[in-house]
Amino acid sequence: xxxxxxILLGRSGSxxxxxxxxxxxxxxxxxxxxxxxxxxxxxRKDLFGENISKTIIKGKLVPLxxxxxxxxxxxxxxxxxxxxxxxxxxRVLEEAKILEETLSWFSKRKLLVIYLxxxxxxxxNRLLNRRICSKCHREFSLALNPGxxxxxHCGAKLIRRRDDYPQAIKNRMDFFKKNxxxxxxYFKKKKMLIEVEGxxxxxxxxxxxxxxxxxxxx
Length: 218
Ligand SMILES: [Zn+2]
Description:
Elements: E1 5-10, H1 16-26, E2 30-31, H2 34-41, H3 47-57, H4 64-76, E3 84-86, H5 93-105, E4 111-117, H6 120-128, E5 130-133, E6 139-141, E7 158-159, H7 166-189, E8 193-197, H8 202-217
Parallel strand pairs: 1-3, 1-4, 2-3, 4-8
Antiparallel strand pairs: 5-6, 5-7
Helix pairs in contact: 1-8, 4-5, 6-7
Bound molecules: zinc ion.
Zinc ion binds near residues 138, 151 and 153.
């Protein structure tokens, strides 16, 4: 059987990261995290590194040729029959088309796009209530643990991520509407899209994704 390849789409705060990890284990996929690759390149002590770092800090998109390089480089280092999963890419329609083409050049033709559907209101609340441990980076929700100040795992102080404030959250929601919705519609038209309700228990959502994948591959 040819390996499965997945693109996971959803708003920030939709639980994409958690679902990506579960799918990665379930289908033994390699997670191609463009953000991670870019952050590593941003550490270079030269103009190239500096430019990437500046772009990320400003919250702007790095150029398309650079994200393409990141995937290509990673895919060339993998056995060709290995399935991959993307959760930070694509971020615009043009990128989605290039990613699709790149995957087909690697003979990764069994591609499914999963959209974790959540309302803007729900994820905004989740993000406003999100706190991160300053030491072990575990995530906590003030909605579930009202008044929590310290990490229940290591005891370090909980902090709020710089982009978890109202204006930054609003910007991400606007970005989603403007750029990711067209990507979702593009794959929907090509009958490659699986939509899953992203509000509920983590394992229930995972089970639903898996059962819809099975149905789709039949
Ligand atoms: Zn901690």
